[in-house]
Design brief:
Layout (H helix, E strand, L loop, with lengths): L1 H24 L6 E6 L4 E4 L6 E10 L3 E21 L3 E17 L2 E2 L9 E14 L7 E5 L5 E5 L7 E22 L2 E17 L3 E18 L13
Length: 236
């Protein structure tokens, strides 16, 4: 009885796997596929994150072809820098935010992106510096000199720092074309991934940097490129 149950379970597993493979291979060949997302794909993020899949689709090529892959996204950047200075001491704060995108074909990076950096869809480096006297109200006193004259004296330990703050918040749309050459016949999975990287520094002030990926779309087109094209670049 146990032997019959094991044989039945194996038979069912083989049938399921065979059906999945058959379904994938039965997908019709296509020249163009598309995928869209009408929502925030990556929320506001600080620090350096790993690659996150934001869109994915499949395409079946009837024979060896090349693929044009276009990925378009809304990219948001937020940078805030604040400097705090007194006694004519310079203070500097820097905030950097960037959003990178890469495309994978069956798990492998598609040119011109790579897993180390991808393609930068948006980046901002914001630096704010200031050299300020400080708030001296209440820190001044009048003293009488030995010769009877009077002078105004500033107590430097009483001075409060002055601050300047700059905040920039933007959202733009960016698009880039990726090209996969000599893609073999069969069903292929195209995955679009995004990563947010933020850094910054501050002396006595502060900084904040964030990035986000909004709505997006991807299109995949099966084409046949000319082989060994001669590209001539003229520089004036």
């Amino acid at each position: 009885m146990k032997k019959s149950a094991v044989v039945l379970a194996v038979a069912l597993l083989v049938a399921v796997l065979g059906t999945s493979t058959a379904d994938a291979q039965s997908q019709p060949s296509a020249k163009v596929t598309a995928k869209t997302a009408n929502l925030t794909l990556l929320p506001e993020t600080t620090g350096t994150g790993g690659w996150q899949t934001v869109l994915s689709n499949t395409i079946k090529t009837a024979n060896q072809k090349d693929l044009f892959i276009n990925a378009s996204f809304e990219v948001g950047l937020f940078t805030q820098t604040l400097v705090s200075s007194k006694n004519m001491t310079k203070d500097t704060s820097t905030a950097d935010a960037n959003v990178q995108v890469q495309v994978l074909l069956d798990g492998q990076p598609v040119q011109p992106g790579d897993k180390r950096a991808g393609v930068v869809y948006g980046r901002r480096t914001q630096t704010l510096s200031a050299t300020l006297e400080g708030a001296i109200a209440g820190c001044l006193s009048i003293v009488t000199n030995l010769d009877g004259s009077q002078s105004i004296v500033l107590d430097p330990t009483c001075v409060l720092p002055e601050t300047i703050e700059l905040i920039l918040d933007s959202m733009d749309a960016a698009s880039f074309n990726f090209v996969a050459v000599d893609v073999p016949q069969g069903v292929h999975t195209i995955t679009v991934q995004a990563r947010i990287d933020t850094t910054g520094s501050a002396d006595t002030g502060s900084f904040k940097a964030m990035g986000t990926v909004g709505k997006g779309s991807m299109t995949v087109e099966s084409v046949r490129l000319i082989k060994d094209p001669n590209v001539i670049l003229s520089v004036d």
